[in-house]
Amino acid sequence: MAEISALKAELRAGRLAARDAMSAVERIEKSLQLADHGLAAIELSPGTVVSGFLPIRSEVDLRPLMAGLRGRGARICVPVILDKERIEFRELLPDTKLIDCGFGTSAPGLEARVLYPDIMLVPLAAFDRSGHRIGYGGGYYDRAIARLHDQGRDPRLIGIAFDRQEVASVPAEPHDIRLQAVLTESGLHSFDTRLDRNETSLFR
């Protein structure tokens, strides 16, 4: 287990360094490309709850995609760190006032409604072609998804990354939850056999 953790830490550091090396202009351009692909490929109905996230450090800027999905009738929410173990998802409206939530994050305050995602746009440090991801090391999303499963909910899990965050293989552990797809600037790439329209089956 310690060996797997060390390997994950190495892969995480390498892919985050590659992401950090992108210029601000390149990140903006690729975030817009990602948004275009996501709007073309993610199917939803009015009222579908989609969790996104507000960018920190060199993450993909999901705000254009979240705005576009809201325009198609989705309800958008973002994660809020409650403590060292838990996050919850609060509704993000165009006029929502954001508060500082620690670790460089901001999110809606207590007055915002707590939502339960039908589709989760999941941040990550690294991913492979089997749908395994390496997060930032806190385990917040693994625990949040496990709680949703315990409640009988089964959100669709779409990782969000730049292409350069792909690795050959992510060492999987029992608690790791596999993604159904990853959305990057090159498209929405599905890892299951139940493909939605406009999706590709695997990376080319």
Q: What is the residue-averaged pLDDT?
A: 91
> What count of helical segments does DSSP give?
4
Strand content: 15-25%
Query: What's the N-to-C terminus distance?
Result: 32 Å
Spell out the helices and strands N to C: HHEHEEEEEEEHEEE
> Which superfamily, in CATH terms, is the homologous superfamily?
NagB/RpiA/CoA transferase-like
Low-confidence stretches: 193-204
Per the CATH scheme, the topology name is: Rossmann fold
| Helicity level | 25-40%
How many DSSP-defined strands? 11
Class per helix and strand makeup? alpha/beta
Overall shape? globular
Overall tally of structural domains: 1
CATH class: Alpha Beta
From the alpha carbons, calculate the radius of gyration and give it in angstroms. 16 Å
Strand order of the largest sheet: 3-2-1-6-9-10-11
Profile the largest sheet. Answer: 7 strands, mixed
Annotated CATH architecture = 3-Layer(aba) Sandwich
Cofactor: Mg(2+)
EC number: 6.3.3.2
Keywords: ATP-binding, Ligase, Magnesium, Metal-binding, Nucleotide-binding
Protein name: 5-formyltetrahydrofolate cyclo-ligase
What do you see in this structure?
It is a single chain. This protein has helices spanning 2-20, 24-41, 63-71, 140-150, and strands at 49-51, 75-81, 87-91, 98-102, 105-108, 119-123, 126-127, 133-134, 156-160, 181-184, 187-190. With 204 residues, the protein is α/β, with parallel strands linked by helices. Helix content is 28%, strand content 23%. A seven-stranded mixed sheet has the order 3-2-1-6-9-10-11. A two-stranded antiparallel ribbon has the order 4-5. A two-stranded antiparallel sheet has the order 7-8. The protein starts with a helix and ends in a 14-residue tail after the last strand. It has one domain: Rossmann fold, CATH 3.40.50. Its cofactor is Mg(2+). Belongs to the 5-formyltetrahydrofolate cyclo-ligase family. It catalyses: (6S)-5-formyl-5,6,7,8-tetrahydrofolate + ATP = (6R)-5,10-methenyltetrahydrofolate + ADP + phosphate. This is 5-formyltetrahydrofolate cyclo-ligase.
